[in-house]
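User: My collaborator sent over this chain with a note saying "see what the structure looks like." That's all I know about it. Can you take a look?
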Amino acid sequence: MTRQERPRRAAPLRALRGQAVALCCVAAAILMWTVGFAGADPRQMGALGLLTFFNTAIVGAILLLLGSALVCVYQRRPQWVVGVHLVTYLALVHGTPALMYDNVRYAWSYKHLGVVDFILRTGTVDTGIDVNPIYHNWPGVFAGSALIAGFGGEDTERTLALWAPLVFNLILLVVLRYLFRGLTSRSDVVGTALIIYFTMTWVGQDYFSPQAVVYILYIAVVGLLLRGQYSGWLRTALFALLVAAMAVSHQITLVMLLMALTALLVLHQIRGWHLLTVAVAIIGAWALTFADDFTLTNLADLVWGFGQPLANAEETFSKSDGATGLQKLVVVGDRFTVGVAAAFAVFGAWRSRRDSSLSRPALILMLAPVAILGMMSFGGEALLRVFLFAAPFIAFLAAQGCAPRTRGTDVDYRRLCTVAAVVALVLPGFFLGYYGKERQSYFTAEEVGAFEWLAENAPAGSLLVEGDTNYPRQFRNYEKFDYVVIAREPASGRIVSRPVARLGEWLSDARFVDGYVVITRSQKIGIEMDHSMRPGSLDRIEDALRSSPLFTVVHESRDATVFTLSELGRR
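Assistant: Without extra context I'll predict from the sequence alone. Here is the result:
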């Protein structure tokens, strides 16, 4: 063997060794994570949610997995190796709650399950329904879920909802890679951008919801526009198909789509003004035909906040300004992560411009969501929406600023340290934002059983008085009932002071066939965390009803109690 042949044969062996070491790091991270969470009981979560259980093994698993992923990117390992790291990271972070809880998390998921249940029972939607009408006017995701559930059998929809965060993030990984490849041909920038995105984007919009699906479709549409791999009628057809899927599912994301499309066209980053016409036609056709009653009736609410950017931003801040105790740390961590990520994106844009490699579409699409502040309040979530839609491009520009300068097999250790610093700075805020409120999002089987009992036993036309909305509600037969939430009542303090008299008056109202009061463990946690009532208010109401001869308990478990009027109370 000649001296020239030895290095040629040694190179593949070194590459294989490097891949083997990387995969061993993945396996070790899985083992450490599993050991770290062993024996964790979600009922014992403290004020920081799942972070309560974080220990040396769990933190070590995260650092080992992400550190190995970054090294693989900068050593230019095969992309499948980096992909294994990212899939493992997503599986650990987003799969753990599903395994630990064994129940769907987040209260809004149950409301969405209720629409799927309605479609499964009736085979249609009711655009004029009184409860949750917006879901019946944009039912695309719910109809699709019902179709899958119809084939899958009993409780398939709950399985879909349970694993939705993991599935959505895995799909998003693929779609983001598709988008980033439309912005650059450099695999190291793509890999770095993916790592930064999934370690900074703490906004929890990945639960079972229309916005999670439509966000993925939005990224796919932008990727289709930027990649330019299709032309003519095929590009227009694919674009129209994706926009149609969005138009029947979620009205808010469509605003961002139109803004992004307009910005790219006006600034000459893409061609095809007819695409804007197609999008407006599809969106308008659905809103003014199938959803016309809702659109016209609620137009004022949909555009409330237009031209009030400061007020819209302030509404977002005001939602978290009341945080106390360790929840203040969650708020600070969230904002710090956004600030650091945005700063590195600006740095990346400056460095890329200096190197003549700035991606103008990425810069435009990062800045375009800021216009949301001047258009809508989004229910007090305008700033969150700005960050969510800007996040892919923040991550990409930050990755460009950290991209290796060297080519071939040499490792740019200075840039590697830079991106490691970015990840290290944004990661704590990500986990604070994503895991820090899990105590509020976790529900027990007993709480699920409380509403199941009501759905099966309470007669149609009954009034359900709920302590708070933070519990599994409205997921079955939800249209049968009228709802009143104590925590949202302007005079909730008076209810606490005289619960028997006030609630007895509500439940005996002749407009309702019957009446029930539902108080659960997670409702109490909800008012404690969002400060909608004084701590202990629901305990006082529960104790008063339990001791009153005017009320009786009709369903009770460790975590939930359902009251109704006794025979004496009905006289």
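A starting point for your reply to your collaborator: The first helix runs from residue 5 to 37.
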